[in-house]
Amino acid sequence: MCYRDRVLAAVVCCAGLVALVGLTGCEDKEARNAAAEATKKLDEVRAELAVVRAQNTQLLEALKTIPEKLSSQVNDRISASLDQVSSANKELLNKLSTDAEKTRSDATEIVKTARSDFDKELLNLKTALAGDIQTIRKKNEDDLADIKKHVENQLRDLYPYAYQPRRESKAPPEPDAK
Question: Is the pLDDT of residue 30 over 70?
Fold first, then answer.
Protein backbone atom coordinates (compact mmCIF):
# COMPACT_ATOMS: atom_id res chain seq x y z
CA MET A 1 0.00 0.00 0.00
CA CYS A 2 2.95 2.36 0.49
CA TYR A 3 3.72 2.08 -3.19
CA ARG A 4 0.17 3.08 -3.98
CA ASP A 5 0.46 6.16 -1.75
CA ARG A 6 3.65 7.21 -3.53
CA VAL A 7 2.03 6.77 -6.90
CA LEU A 8 -0.93 8.89 -5.85
CA ALA A 9 1.42 11.55 -4.50
CA ALA A 10 3.31 11.59 -7.80
CA VAL A 11 0.03 11.83 -9.75
CA VAL A 12 -1.12 14.74 -7.62
CA CYS A 13 2.22 16.54 -8.09
CA CYS A 14 2.15 16.05 -11.85
CA ALA A 15 -1.44 17.24 -12.02
CA GLY A 16 -0.43 20.28 -10.01
CA LEU A 17 2.41 21.07 -12.42
CA VAL A 18 0.14 20.67 -15.43
CA ALA A 19 -2.44 22.93 -13.86
CA LEU A 20 0.23 25.48 -12.94
CA VAL A 21 1.64 25.56 -16.45
CA GLY A 22 -1.77 25.56 -18.11
CA LEU A 23 -3.19 28.28 -15.90
CA THR A 24 -0.22 30.62 -16.11
CA GLY A 25 -0.24 30.52 -19.87
CA CYS A 26 3.49 30.35 -20.07
CA GLU A 27 4.87 30.11 -23.56
CA ASP A 28 8.23 28.86 -22.53
CA LYS A 29 9.43 25.79 -24.42
CA GLU A 30 11.10 24.41 -21.41
CA ALA A 31 7.92 24.78 -19.46
CA ARG A 32 6.01 23.09 -22.24
CA ASN A 33 8.52 20.28 -22.33
CA ALA A 34 8.30 19.95 -18.58
CA ALA A 35 4.50 19.95 -18.83
CA ALA A 36 4.62 17.32 -21.58
CA GLU A 37 7.01 15.26 -19.52
CA ALA A 38 4.76 15.60 -16.47
CA THR A 39 1.77 14.59 -18.58
CA LYS A 40 3.69 11.60 -19.84
CA LYS A 41 4.65 10.64 -16.28
CA LEU A 42 1.06 11.19 -15.26
CA ASP A 43 -0.11 8.76 -17.95
CA GLU A 44 2.53 6.24 -16.81
CA VAL A 45 1.43 6.63 -13.21
CA ARG A 46 -2.21 6.19 -14.24
CA ALA A 47 -1.29 2.98 -16.09
CA GLU A 48 0.61 1.75 -13.05
CA LEU A 49 -2.32 2.73 -10.85
CA ALA A 50 -4.69 0.72 -13.07
CA VAL A 51 -2.35 -2.28 -12.82
CA VAL A 52 -2.15 -1.92 -9.05
CA ARG A 53 -5.95 -1.62 -8.82
CA ALA A 54 -6.34 -4.79 -10.94
CA GLN A 55 -3.85 -6.61 -8.75
CA ASN A 56 -5.66 -5.34 -5.65
CA THR A 57 -9.01 -6.67 -6.91
CA GLN A 58 -7.39 -10.00 -7.79
CA LEU A 59 -5.85 -10.21 -4.32
CA LEU A 60 -9.22 -9.36 -2.71
CA GLU A 61 -10.89 -12.08 -4.79
CA ALA A 62 -8.15 -14.53 -3.75
CA LEU A 63 -8.60 -13.52 -0.11
CA LYS A 64 -12.32 -14.23 -0.37
CA THR A 65 -11.67 -17.78 -1.60
CA ILE A 66 -9.03 -18.56 1.06
CA PRO A 67 -11.55 -19.31 3.89
CA GLU A 68 -13.47 -21.65 1.58
CA LYS A 69 -10.27 -23.45 0.61
CA LEU A 70 -9.13 -23.65 4.23
CA SER A 71 -12.49 -24.97 5.40
CA SER A 72 -12.53 -27.60 2.65
CA GLN A 73 -8.98 -28.67 3.53
CA VAL A 74 -9.83 -28.81 7.24
CA ASN A 75 -13.00 -30.78 6.51
CA ASP A 76 -11.04 -33.21 4.33
CA ARG A 77 -8.47 -33.73 7.10
CA ILE A 78 -11.21 -34.18 9.70
CA SER A 79 -12.94 -36.73 7.47
CA ALA A 80 -9.67 -38.59 6.97
CA SER A 81 -9.02 -38.56 10.73
CA LEU A 82 -12.54 -39.78 11.47
CA ASP A 83 -12.11 -42.58 8.94
CA GLN A 84 -8.84 -43.59 10.59
CA VAL A 85 -10.40 -43.52 14.06
CA SER A 86 -13.40 -45.48 12.84
CA SER A 87 -11.24 -48.13 11.21
CA ALA A 88 -9.09 -48.35 14.34
CA ASN A 89 -12.23 -48.79 16.46
CA LYS A 90 -13.51 -51.53 14.16
CA GLU A 91 -10.14 -53.23 14.29
CA LEU A 92 -10.05 -53.10 18.08
CA LEU A 93 -13.62 -54.40 18.35
CA ASN A 94 -12.83 -57.27 15.99
CA LYS A 95 -9.70 -58.10 17.98
CA LEU A 96 -11.63 -57.91 21.24
CA SER A 97 -14.37 -60.20 19.94
CA THR A 98 -11.87 -62.75 18.60
CA ASP A 99 -9.97 -62.65 21.91
CA ALA A 100 -13.23 -63.12 23.82
CA GLU A 101 -14.20 -66.03 21.56
CA LYS A 102 -10.79 -67.63 22.01
CA THR A 103 -10.96 -67.16 25.79
CA ARG A 104 -14.44 -68.69 25.86
CA SER A 105 -13.36 -71.71 23.80
CA ASP A 106 -10.23 -72.14 25.95
CA ALA A 107 -12.32 -71.96 29.12
CA THR A 108 -14.76 -74.51 27.67
CA GLU A 109 -11.89 -76.86 26.90
CA ILE A 110 -10.45 -76.44 30.39
CA VAL A 111 -13.85 -77.17 31.94
CA LYS A 112 -14.30 -80.24 29.73
CA THR A 113 -10.84 -81.50 30.65
CA ALA A 114 -11.42 -80.85 34.35
CA ARG A 115 -14.82 -82.55 34.20
CA SER A 116 -13.41 -85.62 32.46
CA ASP A 117 -10.54 -85.76 34.97
CA PHE A 118 -13.03 -85.44 37.82
CA ASP A 119 -15.21 -88.19 36.32
CA LYS A 120 -12.20 -90.48 35.98
CA GLU A 121 -11.13 -89.78 39.55
CA LEU A 122 -14.69 -90.36 40.80
CA LEU A 123 -14.89 -93.65 38.91
CA ASN A 124 -11.56 -94.74 40.39
CA LEU A 125 -12.77 -93.81 43.89
CA LYS A 126 -16.07 -95.64 43.33
CA THR A 127 -14.33 -98.81 42.23
CA ALA A 128 -11.87 -98.62 45.13
CA LEU A 129 -14.67 -97.92 47.62
CA ALA A 130 -16.87 -100.62 46.13
CA GLY A 131 -14.12 -103.15 46.67
CA ASP A 132 -13.54 -101.92 50.23
CA ILE A 133 -17.27 -101.96 50.99
CA GLN A 134 -17.57 -105.48 49.59
CA THR A 135 -14.76 -106.71 51.81
CA ILE A 136 -16.31 -104.96 54.84
CA ARG A 137 -19.70 -106.59 54.06
CA LYS A 138 -18.09 -109.98 53.68
CA LYS A 139 -16.29 -109.53 56.98
CA ASN A 140 -19.51 -108.36 58.68
CA GLU A 141 -21.40 -111.35 57.31
CA ASP A 142 -18.66 -113.68 58.49
CA ASP A 143 -18.63 -112.00 61.91
CA LEU A 144 -22.43 -112.19 62.08
CA ALA A 145 -22.35 -115.89 61.21
CA ASP A 146 -19.69 -116.45 63.87
CA ILE A 147 -21.75 -114.56 66.45
CA LYS A 148 -24.87 -116.56 65.52
CA LYS A 149 -22.95 -119.81 65.93
CA HIS A 150 -21.55 -118.64 69.22
CA VAL A 151 -24.98 -117.54 70.49
CA GLU A 152 -26.55 -120.82 69.39
CA ASN A 153 -23.80 -122.76 71.07
CA GLN A 154 -24.26 -120.72 74.21
CA LEU A 155 -28.02 -121.23 74.13
CA ARG A 156 -27.61 -124.95 73.56
CA ASP A 157 -25.17 -125.20 76.42
CA LEU A 158 -27.20 -123.08 78.81
CA TYR A 159 -30.68 -124.23 77.92
CA PRO A 160 -30.40 -127.66 76.25
CA TYR A 161 -34.09 -128.52 76.84
CA ALA A 162 -35.41 -125.19 75.40
CA TYR A 163 -33.08 -124.88 72.42
CA GLN A 164 -34.81 -124.63 69.08
CA PRO A 165 -32.62 -123.61 66.14
CA ARG A 166 -33.83 -120.70 64.04
CA ARG A 167 -35.19 -121.38 60.69
CA GLU A 168 -33.23 -119.92 57.86
CA SER A 169 -35.85 -120.47 55.20
CA LYS A 170 -38.90 -118.29 54.76
CA ALA A 171 -41.24 -121.24 54.25
CA PRO A 172 -43.87 -121.80 56.97
CA PRO A 173 -43.16 -124.59 59.42
CA GLU A 174 -44.62 -127.96 58.71
CA PRO A 175 -47.57 -128.97 60.81
CA ASP A 176 -46.93 -131.53 63.50
CA ALA A 177 -48.12 -134.98 62.57
CA LYS A 178 -50.44 -136.42 65.28
Answer: yes
